[in-house]
Amino acid sequence: MYHKINFFKFKKLIPIALIFLVSNHANAEGFTTNHPAFSQVNETISGVVLDQEGSAIEGAQISVIETGATAISDASGNFSISASIGQTLSVSYNGYEVQKLKITSSSVSVKLQSAKAATSIEEVTLVGYGSQKKSDLTGAVSQLKAENFKEGMNISVDNLMQGKIAGVRIVQSSGEPGAGVNVSIRGIGSIRSGSTPLFVVDGVPLSNDAVSATSPNVGLGNAQAKNPLNFLNTSDIESITVLKDASAAAIYGARGSNGVVLVTTKRGRKGEPMFTYDTYLGFSSVIKKLDLLTADEYRVAGINKLYDHGGNTDWQDEIYRNAVSSNHSVSFSKATDTGNYFASLSHMDQDGIVLNSGFKRTTARLNAEESFFDNKRLKVRVNLTASDIKETGIPNGANAGSDGQVIIHALMANPTRSVYDENGNYTNFNMNAHYNPLYLLSVYNDKTNTFRVLGSTEATLRILPGLNYKFNLGIDKAMSERNTTMFPNLTDRSKTGLYVQANLDSYNVLLEHYLTYDFSLNKHNFSLLGGFSYQKFKSSGTYFGLENIAAQGAGISPDINPGYSGKPIVPGAGYAQENELQSYFGRVNYNFDKKYLLTASLRADGSTRFGNNNKYGYFPSVAVGWTISNENFLKDSQIVNELKLRGSWGQTGNQEVPNKITQDSYSLSQDAGYYLYENLNLVNGVKILRTLNPDLKWEVVEQTNIGADFSLWKNKLYGSLEYYNKTTKDPILNIPSRVLSPTSTVWKNVDAQIVNKGFEFSLGSEIIKNENFTWNFDVNGATVNNVIKNLPVSAIYSGEVSGPGLSGVTANIYKNGYEAGSFYMLNYLGVDANGKYMYEDVDGDGIIGPKDRKIFEGAIPNFTFGINSYMKYKKFDFAFSLIGQTGGYLLNNTALDLNINNLASDRNVLKNFSDSGANFTNQPQLSSLYLEKSDFIRLNNVRLGYTFDINQLKFLKSINLYVSAQNVLTITSYTGYDPLVDTNKQVGGNQSLGIDYTTYPSAKTFILGATVKF
């Protein structure tokens, strides 16, 4: 209602108001008549904010109580603000008591004291559908913040976790820029459904399916789709939270069996608007070269003289290059009393270390939050990111057999050959299945363009104090086009040329409603959650191709105008599929007097991927905790600052299986045909392709976790200890069907179990913390013991081996009593007097054959660790990280292709094979000769920086210049490029483990960078 105010009546109140103000001013604490607060002229007040140890605090908020002016302290704790002598500053920072002080000069110093209740255990940590204080957590949850991401050049968010979190293992499938990354949490929990965790970005669960098109086979194998997470600009990420145990992950039900990774992007912070520019220039080279025979060594190795072609070429030097990368990222952030805003724009351009390979990404992001109505009753948050990615690939398909890949051709190439002939053309090797690698690169072209948009809108309405309704709408849309061309060439691969365009569209929409209610009854504290979620995934793809295309450089390239030349490949192909997930979930958090904790959750998931009899799965969890440090007998302890014991049990699911596998499938086929009429014309019959199984259900992972969190001697030693036992039940397999079944195999749940159990630790220390020097040091480690039990078949095989004469040979075995993906091969004994390879005759029949294969330890390392250190001396900062593993093995399939027999066929060989005295006539066989330990320790990142405070320029806050290096030093006995690798060589959908086949090698990188804050 509008109220009219009578000005003449209002005038009578003015003298009373003036008397009141003067009276209050005269009696204000600490104010004197020497500096009347409102009679002074504003000037620039500069100062520094320190903690109780004298170390600078970055991000503290400084405000003038009388005027509301604000400022934020920079990396050195410095700030400047417009104020008057006699006014009052309020200085606040999360985890510290608010400090108020009167301004007595133009230069001030503020020391903040830690708040008693704001120790590290009181930090807020993200959990599914909300957040909790660390003190209230009962599950195994680890969180990384933006300050942990400073080292190195990282394309994807999963790389940021490497070596930082116990039990989380990051393995590159390839060193190619933007390539896929295998992430596993607490071991391998499935035979065929994968072990990738669920990634949730700003509240939107992502699909683990590819969002970029897979390269078609133009005679050189299929190149894998790139990492679906490489669309995010890593500079935009505020925190990464990993939910490891079932108690923490069960709220995500059917997709939480492999753990959950919550990714949160940056928001605006209170204080002055912040404009930041990040840039770096990187220089990369191959991490190492394989030790092959040089031209001189090749000539004296006893080869046929016809194989000496008179040249001297290091083919690794020819295909690898010193690559240059650059990154530019600008961001703007601001917060107001009612909301906050963050916007960024970035561009990354990374050349691959192999010729003709590269990755370019442009991203834009806008995050905004605003409040409405009385006392911020309604809050609306919008997150939007868009990325455009352009990738250039090389012919390096993992399924190309023993040839067809540029890297293996470079490694096998005779070092006495020359790159070019006397006419300046590429030398023609004139050999089947073996080509000049530079020529192969020149006639191959592979370009992928992927555009992806991820957006979400979250609205929170406070219905009553503590009772909130939340609505979340998320959309993830990606469109990808891949153009692959093999121009007419002199090889025996697509000699007349082949062009294929593959297109992929994917769409993911999320709709969620949920209520949260937080309330307390005396010392009883409750937090309740209940909600509904619906998510739909759609994907479709098409491809078409041409053969007999125009020669390279003649006319218009087919990726620009496919209609210019060539004969269409008939038929073209396309597909479309969709699946839906409908869920109900609830959770109760309870604590009594901040000492005794209880968490219980239940999620019901209904999926279109499963049979009519098991549409819904139910995933419960329960956890308890005891905060011992809040007990009276420890409350005033000078040794124990924080101590909490916790235990949990829960079940999660795995739904990563192909769509429609519960349904039967038919086709018309001549194989099933019959002669219906007397004219003897064959009529196609109906053929059953897949057997119906309406009883198929989720794989279920049951996990027990016991843990402890502690902080001793005022953070001189802090960390957590965990024991876990994680068992996969009802695994989904495509196994042989019973006799008289319409198909030879059937999809079904079997009674087998995959057990992972182990111990994890995270230990850290603030070794030194004073005004000039800070040193934080932490170490984490994890063990895992993996075993398969009750498998209803004798064995399952996977891990296809590539090599001449090795078609159909597999290296991995899944068998009861052994680790998942153990190795299965002949046992190599050495070389006899005639240079012949000797193998163990297991069955004693005097003949070496398939029956003599043995089971060897697998690829899963039984111990992984990370070591991280951060030091700051005045304006210098120095950080490094080490990673390592022990107890695992790799099949060096690359070495198998570089076997001693190559010397009998005009190809190169590894030097150690030549030096072994082995005879050239030895035929390659899969054996333990090529099985190597994957133990290593690596200096993963090292960084040195210096921060300049620019006090003279008011618009410029600070500049941090740094040098950084990645993969600088690796100590290992592994003879391949990199012991931290895993090539996808799956067979029949069963995942392979620990195979290294001519993988695009990793790079060591040196970086010059700068961060400028305005």
What features would you describe in this structure?
- There is one protein chain.
- It is built from nine helices and 53 strands.
- The protein is mainly β and 1014 residues long.
- The strands form eleven sheets. It has a 22-stranded antiparallel beta barrel.
- β2 and β3 form a beta hairpin.
- The chain is globular.
- 44% of the residues are buried.
- Pfam families: CarbopepD_reg_2 (PF13715), Plug (PF07715), TonB_dep_Rec_b-barrel (PF00593).
- This is TonB-dependent receptor.
Please tell me the CATH architecture of the largest domain by its name. Beta Barrel
Structural domain tally: 2
Provide the gyration radius in Å: 32 Å
The 3D shape can be described as globular
According to CATH, what is the class of the largest domain? Answer: Mainly Beta
How is the main sheet built? 22 strands, antiparallel, barrel
Q: Helix coverage percent of residues? A: under 10%
Tell me the β content: over 45%
Q: Which whole number gives the mean pLDDT?
A: 87
- Give the structural class: mainly beta
Cα-to-Cα separation, first versus last residue:
45 Å
The name of the CATH superfamily of the largest domain reads TonB-dependent receptor, beta-barrel domain
The stretches of 5 or more residues where confidence is low (pLDDT under 50) are 1-39
How many helices in DSSP terms? 9
Q: Under CATH, the topology of the largest domain is which?
A: Maltoporin, Chain A
Layout of helices and strands:
Blueprint: H1 7-11, H2 14-27, E1 43-50, E2 61-64, E3 70-72, E4 78-83, E5 88-92, E6 99-102, E7 107-111, E8 124-127, E9 130-133, E10 141-145, E11 168-172, E12 181-185, E13 198-201, E14 204-205, E15 237-243, H3 246-249, E16 260-265, E17 274-286, H4 295-299, H5 315-319, E18 323-335, E19 339-351, E20 358-372, E21 378-392, H6 406-412, H7 437-442, E22 444-464, E23 467-486, E24 498-521, E25 524-547, E26 567-568, E27 573-592, E28 596-607, E29 616-627, E30 640-654, E31 665-675, E32 682-690, E33 699-712, E34 717-729, E35 732-736, E36 745-749, E37 753-769, E38 773-783, E39 785-789, E40 796-800, E41 810-814, E42 822-825, E43 828-831, E44 837-839, E45 854-856, E46 863-873, E47 876-886, E48 889-892, H8 893-897, H9 911-915, E49 931-933, E50 936-949, E51 958-972, E52 995-996, E53 1003-1013
Parallel strand pairs: 1-7, 13-16, 48-52
Antiparallel strand pairs: 1-4, 2-3, 2-5, 5-6, 8-9, 10-15, 11-12, 13-14, 15-16, 17-18, 17-53, 18-19, 19-20, 20-21, 21-22, 22-23, 23-24, 24-25, 25-26, 25-27, 27-28, 28-29, 29-30, 30-33, 31-32, 33-34, 34-37, 35-36, 37-38, 37-39, 38-46, 40-41, 41-42, 42-45, 43-44, 46-47, 47-50, 48-49, 50-51, 51-53
